[in-house]
Every structure is written in structure tokens, then in C-alpha cells.
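Sample entry (226 residues):
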Amino acid sequence: MMTLYYSDVLSAHRACAGAKHLNAPVEYRYLDLAKKDQKQAGYLAINPNGRVPALVKDQRITWESDAIICQLSDELGADLWPHDTRQTDIIRWFSWNAQHFTAAGAALYFENINKERFGLGPPDPTIIAAALGNFRRFAAVLNEQLARPRAWLVGTSLTVADFSVAAALPYAEQAHLPIDDFPNVRRWHDRLNQFDAWREPFPGGLSCTTTGRGTGEHQERFGQPI
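Predicted structure, serialized as C-alpha cells:
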């Protein structure tokens, strides 16, 4: 059994989606960020960054959503993280996404969703304007890449690259991400939404835009049952 530490926030969406899509044998441990569970000494010993998600299997600890999905794919002999020439393209998408596309989307998510949720003050219009400009710039790149046409980012099947790059898109409406201006991106994300795991990644029906905590057979709050 593996343990996946998560919260109902954007950073953990793709890891939970990947685990659910793969039907991975994981025990989910919820961290309540508002109560600073991620800053407890016990969790910092797992992830000294004090962030979610993290995956623990025996003595092996893995941080970061992309790496977690790759590990789960390997553990289960799946093809989300293929061991062939597609790896170079997937890593290229990881790097591009972390520095550009989801970096911009996450900034808009934080300003338009998380600030209100966690009582962090009003959205900053200067940050929003800069992030929106960057999102549009890099969404145009993604839109062009998806115009070939192709169903998925790498090869002819779903890979971890799709889960990685699409991380912010489920919250486009609430975060004010203008994906309707990019029809190929919209079409690609609609295809992802055909997977139950992508639409409902969190145990107990949690959403990145709500403050509730779900319940589930394999879900516990960090350090104590719920």
C-alpha cells in the first residue's frame, strides 16, 4: 500500500487524477492547509517544502505531481509514463508547462480562487493582468501544437504530459482562464473530461474551488482519522 498526501488544491489535482485513473492502491491522507497540516513536523519530514502532494511507499518518498504519476505508472506497469522515445517529448512538456502555461494558470487560480478561500485578501489586478497576458501567450502556443490535429500531446494515447499541462483547466471558469478563445485547447480538454478521474480526482467529491472536506473509505486527515 502507498500513501498519497494531498489537499483539494490545484497542485494535487493531477496526482489524485493519475492515481484514480490508474486505480492505484493508495491510501489518501488529507492535509487541511487552512489548519497548517502541511507545516507540521511529521509532514515536513516527508516533504520539507511543506507542500502537497507527496507519495510514500515504504522508505521511498516522492514529491511533485508529475513525478508521482510517473512512479504510479511504473508501479502498475501502465503506459502513462512510457519507456521509449516519447519520454523526451513528455519531459519537454513538463518543463514548458512548469515555467509557462500552468505557471500562468496557477497565478490566476491563486488570485481568483485561493485568496478568497483562505482569506488572503483581494485579488491583485497587476498580478492578474500579467498572468492573463502570459496565459494567453502560451495558450496560443498550445493551441497551435494541438492543431495538427492530434488527440493527445505526445503520441497517439493519453500520457502524463496531458495530465500535467491541463492541470489548471478544470477551474477555468472560476479562475477566469479564457480557454474558449483557444478552440483546440478546449477540444483537447473536453476529451480529458471524458475520464471520470479527471473530472472528479479527489476522494469524497472534493473540489479545488470549495472548502469542504470529503470522506471516503481510504481517506484520513493527516495524523488522525476523519
